[in-house]
Design a protein that fits this description.
This is RES domain-containing protein. It holds the Pfam family RES. InterPro entries: RES_dom. It is a single chain. The longest helix is centred in the middle third of the chain and has 19 residues. The relative contact order is 0.18. Helix 1 runs antiparallel to helix 2 and helix 4 crosses helix 6. The protein has a domain of about 140 residues. With about 290 residues, it is of the alpha+beta class. It has a 5-stranded mixed sheet with strand order 1-5-6-7-3. A 5-stranded antiparallel sheet has the order 2-4-8-9-10.
Length: about 290
């Protein structure tokens, strides 16, 4: 069954009034008659970032920069309480904005790459609308082979317009700045629906909540353990608060490697402005591929 814009709006309105995950999932089911879920696989070339505030001393272990254990996992934008996922950003600046860094706070910023020979498959939300508007992908920087544009162009015009509208709605659900007020009910429900339809997806990529053109990732624990490799970790101090998503920070330390117990070994003395890299090939290191 095709879904026109008026029908889309009626579905959106009902879904937004949902009081349970099951009700939301039932409401949005007709949207998938026209909406084709996008997914993409990432390889070694991409770097993913996570930031944490420091209270006193730096986080000493790699696991401190990973997803929390189940007993400490609170309900989140795309996870239930007790069911953690690894939240990451495509850029370090986005990671800093996501943790609502305040002036002069100390923070720790870790970068992760995909292990050689591994791939990370993620569902994309918001890419139809972004590519249609800008001509390039928010996630990959390019629309490989014009794939997303071709999908839209080969659809009947009414379906293409509905797809763009639905994509904007799904983006709104996932990056709603007020989602916390409802315990992330709708975003968690949408995440569950998307994973139920793309069962081999390792996670979901969605527009940043706090960075207008940034991207975030919510990766499931098992694939996170399988594919990610720590390649850098920096200590930084936030600068003055700026408007319009501008982030100002100064690096004040970095790890030069991980020891056998996966504790960070900090560069001492630290050379200002240096971002240490480890666990990379000679070619990657020489090209400083991050």
């Amino acid at each position: 069954m095709n879904v026109n814009l008026n029908q889309c709006e009626a579905i959106f309105d009902r879904a937004l009034l949902s009081t349970s995950e099951a009700e939301f999932c039932h409401c949005i089911t007709p949207l998938f008659d026209v909406y084709e879920i996008l997914s993409v696989s990432f390889g070694r070339g991409s770097t993913f970032w996570r930031a944490r505030l420091i209270d006193g001393k730096p986080w000493p272990r790699l696991k401190d920069m990973d997803y929390p254990p189940p007993d400490k996992a609170r309900v989140g934008r795309l996870n239930d309480a007790g069911a953690p996922c690894f939240y990451l950003s495509a850029k370090p600046e986005t990671a800093l904005l996501e943790i609502e860094t305040q002036e002069w706070q100390q923070l720790q910023l870790a970068g992760f790459k995909i292990k050689p020979g591994e791939e990370l498959r993620v569902i994309l939300v918001g890419e139809y609308a972004f590519v249609n508007k800008t001509g390039y992908s928010r996630i990959t920087g390019v629309d490989p082979g014009g794939t997303i544009a071709n999908i839209l162009n080969t659809m009947p015009p009414d379906d293409a317009i509905a797809t763009l509208y639905i994509d904007r709605f799904f983006s709104h659900i996932l990056n709603d700045p007020h989602a916390r007020d409802s315990g992330y009910l709708l975003s968690r429900a949408l995440g569950a629906v998307l994973h139920s339809r793309i069962k081999d997806a390792d996670g979901i990529a969605f527009p940043s909540v706090r960075d207008a053109n940034g991207s975030n990732f919510a990766i499931l624990p098992e694939p996170s353990d399988r594919v990610f490799q720590s390649v850098t970790c920096a200590l930084a101090k936030a600068g003055k608060n700026r408007r319009y998503g501008m982030v100002e920070f100064e690096m004040v330390g970095c790890a030069e490697r991980l020891d056998a117990q996966e504790h960070f070994v900090w560069m001492d003395p630290y050379q200002p402005g240096t971002l240490g890299m480890y666990g990379m090939t000679k070619d990657e290191f020489e090209k400083k591929v991050l």
